[in-house]
Amino acid sequence: MTNRANLLSLKRLISFLDVELALSEFPHDESVNGLQIEGKGIIRKIGVAVDACEFVFEKALEKNIDFLVVHHGLIWGGIKSVRGVLKKRIKTLLDADISLYACHLPLDWHPQYGNNAQLLKLLSIKKMGEFGEYHGKRIGYWGRTSKEMSVKDFLLHIDDTLKTKSFSVNFGKKVKNVGVVSGGGWSAIYDAEEYGIDTFLTGEPSHSAYTLAEEMNVNLVFSGHYATETLGVKTVGDMLRKRFGLTVEFIDHPTGL
Ligand SMILES: [Zn+2]
C-alpha cells in the first residue's frame, strides 16, 4: 500500500514495524527493541544503519531523515544515567527531532528480513533449518552450499559478495553444511556437532571458539560483525520503501571489525 501524499505518521510506522519485525518473539532481549527516542510525528524520509552513533546521526541530519532504524540501539537493559557519550547522542537526536528505532535479536533471527536469513540468501546457501541458540532461542540458520568447496574458495565467495575481509581457522573439512550466526554469535559453535555443521560462519573472532571448533572438527569463518549485520537493516529499508513509497537511505559506517 502506498501513501499517496508520501506522509506517514510516526505512530502508524511504529505499530507496523513492531508487528512486522515480530518484536514480541524476543521479550528478554537486552536491547530495548522498538522506539527508543521519539522524534517528529510525521515521517517523510527514513534512514537505516547498523549502529546508533554520532556519525550516523550527523549523516541523518544532513540527509533530512526523520526516522532511523538501527540494529544496535542506544538503550541496553535500561538507562541508569544520561551523561557523556550517551547524553551527546540523545541530545543530537532530540535537537534534530529524529526518531530512533532499534531492532536487535529479532533482526538477527527474522526468517524474512533477518541478518542470518539474508546472509544465506546472499551466499546462495540453501536454508535447512534454525541453528544457534542464544538466550534460549535459535537466532541463526544452517544450510547447504550448492557444491562442496574448500575453505579458501568459500572465503573468496563471501568476501566477493559481502564486500568484506574474512578470516578463517581451517580444521581440514570441506565446506558443505554451514551454520550462520551474524555479529558476535561465536557461542553458537556449541550447536555445531548436533547439526552436523562442517563450517561455522559468524562476525567476530573469539578465542574461546578455537578449541571447541578444534575438538568438533568444525571450520571457523569470521566475516566481520559489521559486515554480517548490514543485510537486515538494508532489507527492512527496502521493505519500507516499497510499502510506504518513502525515500529510504542506508547510512554506511563500516568499522572493519
Ligand atoms: Zn551485533
Please characterize this protein's 3D structure.
With 257 residues, this protein is an alpha/beta fold. Helix content is 34%, strand content 27%. The protein contains 9 helices and 13 strands. The chain has helices at residues 10-20, 54-62, 84-96, 105-109, 115-122, 151-162, 207-216, 225-228, 230-244, and strands at residues 8-9, 34-37, 42-43, 45-51, 67-72, 99-102, 125-134, 137-149, 167-169, 175-181, 199-202, 219-222, 247-250. A 6-stranded mixed β-sheet has the order 7-8-10-11-12-9, with helices on both faces. Helix 7 links the parallel strand 11 (199-202) and strand 12. It is elongated. The termini are far apart. The mean pLDDT is 95. The site of zinc ion has 5 residues, from loops.
Question: Which structural class do the helices and strands define?
Answer: alpha/beta
Our estimate of the beta-strand percent is 25-35%
Gyration radius (Cα, Å) is 19 Å
Which kinds of small molecule does this entry bind, naming each only once?
zinc ion
Number of strands: 13
| Share of helical residues | 25-40%
Low-pLDDT residue spans: none
**pLDDT averaged residue by residue:** 95
**Number of helical segments?**
9
Principal-axes geometry comes out as elongated
Specify the biggest β-sheet. Answer: 6 strands, mixed
User: What is the H-and-E element order?
Assistant: EHEEEHEHEHHEEHEEEHEHHE
How are the strands ordered across the major sheet? 7-8-10-11-12-9
End-to-end distance: 38 Å
